[in-house]
């Protein structure tokens, strides 16, 4: 099983998860050209994609979906409400709506030999979800665009082999930055984005000895930077209420314009 961040950030998100025979994308929020190049770099053709699972309808998660659907004819999975919102996005152009496959939070489904487990998150979207993907006894998760976390989220992220988790902003940078007040309130609210500190606190609740890789994703271009996210999360882990140190784990920041390493589990 492999996990690769093709792109992750406030300007566009696209994550690959696959086995030897099944290849899926979590979101398609970058250009089709960048998606195809990313797939080529890991030895997968666009025509070999088995499915695309969409977390929610915002453009940084969907902007490449129309071209990808037209070129590859691949099934598109999302909640009914998410797919309804996507169908209204005129910038995606024309593509076959019969590719839409509605799913429901907490109802598992299979794509090839991968078991996909969607679970609800709180974000200002129609009915957003995060995804846990399992292959045999191995599992990874992609969890971004969460205003906060609770025990339900923690429970769905237990026992992972690898995780891409939102570490969107530094609270002080956001509060002192140029964003208008309403936007700051939105990002800091319960339906906004997870801060660096909260990403570290969430990780403290899901760490275990067999967690092989942590990717910090969906960083804000204006209100965060890689070194700050990395060091803040590491500090939260080391000083948090858990038996581990940050140095016990492989932690990397997923970049908006570069692929991550190929994580094989």
Kindly describe this structure.
The structure is a single chain. The chain has 8 helices and 14 strands. The protein has 265 residues and is an alpha/beta fold. It is globular, with a radius of gyration of 17 Å. Helix 7 (196-206) packs across helix 8. 26% of the residues lie in helices and 24% in strands.
C-alpha Rg, in Å? 17 Å
Low-pLDDT runs: none
> Helicity range of the residues?
25-40%
Quaternary class: single chain
How much beta, percentage-wise? 15-25%
**Cα distance spanning the termini:** 5 Å
Largest sheet: 7 strands, mixed
Q: State the secondary-structure class.
A: alpha/beta
Number of helices, where a helix is a run of at least 4 consecutive DSSP H or I residues: 8
Give the strand line-up of the largest sheet.
Answer: 6-5-4-3-2-1-14
Mean pLDDT: 97
Sum up the overall morphology in one term: globular
Order of helices and strands: EEEHEHEHEEEEEHEHHHEHEE
> Total number of β-strand segments?
14
Question: What is the topology?
Answer:
Elements: E1 2-7, E2 14-18, E3 23-26, H1 32-41, E4 51-53, H2 65-72, E5 76-79, H3 80-86, E6 100-103, E7 109-111, E8 114-120, E9 129-135, E10 138-143, H4 151-156, E11 162-166, H5 171-176, H6 181-188, H7 196-206, E12 213-217, H8 226-239, E13 251-253, E14 263-264
Parallel strand pairs: 3-4, 4-5, 5-6, 10-11, 11-12, 12-13
Antiparallel strand pairs: 1-2, 1-14, 2-3, 7-8, 8-9, 9-10
Helix pairs in contact: 7-8
Provide a brief overview of the structure:
Helix content is 26%, strand content 24%.
Based on the model shown, name its key terms.
265 residues, seven-stranded mixed sheet, 8 helices, globular
């Amino acid at each position: 099983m492999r996990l690769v961040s093709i792109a992750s950030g406030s300007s566009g998100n696209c994550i690959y998860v696959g086995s030897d025979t099944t290849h899926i994308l979590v979101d398609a929020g970058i250009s089709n050209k960048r998606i195809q190049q990313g797939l080529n770099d890991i030895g997968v053709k666009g025509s070999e994609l088995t499915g695309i699972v969409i977390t929610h309808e915002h453009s940084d998660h969907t902007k490449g979906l129309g071209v990808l659907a037209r070129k590859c004819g691949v099934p598109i999975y999302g909640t009914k409400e998410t797919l309804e919102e996507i169908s209204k996005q005129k910038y995606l152009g024309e593509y076959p709506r019969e590719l839409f496959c509605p799913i429901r939070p907490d109802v598992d489904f299979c794509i090839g030999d991968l078991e996909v487990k969607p679970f609800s998150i709180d974000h200002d979207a129609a009915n957003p979800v995060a995804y846990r993907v399992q292959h045999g006894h191995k599992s990874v998760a992609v969890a971004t665009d969460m205003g906060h976390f609770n025990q339900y989220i923690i429970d769905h992220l237990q026992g992972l082999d690898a995780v891409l988790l939102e570490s969107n902003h530094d609270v002080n940078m956001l509060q002192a930055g140029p964003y208008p007040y309403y936007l700051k309130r939105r990002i800091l609210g319960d339906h906004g984005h997870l801060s660096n500190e909260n990403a570290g606190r969430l990780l403290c609740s899901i760490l275990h000895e067999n967690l092989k890789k942590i990717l910090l994703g969906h960083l804000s271009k204006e209100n965060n930077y890689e070194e700050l996210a990395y060091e803040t999360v590491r500090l939260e882990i080391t000083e948090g209420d858990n038996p581990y140190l940050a140095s016990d784990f492989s932690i990397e920041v997923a970049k908006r314009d570069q692929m991550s390493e190929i994580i094989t589990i």
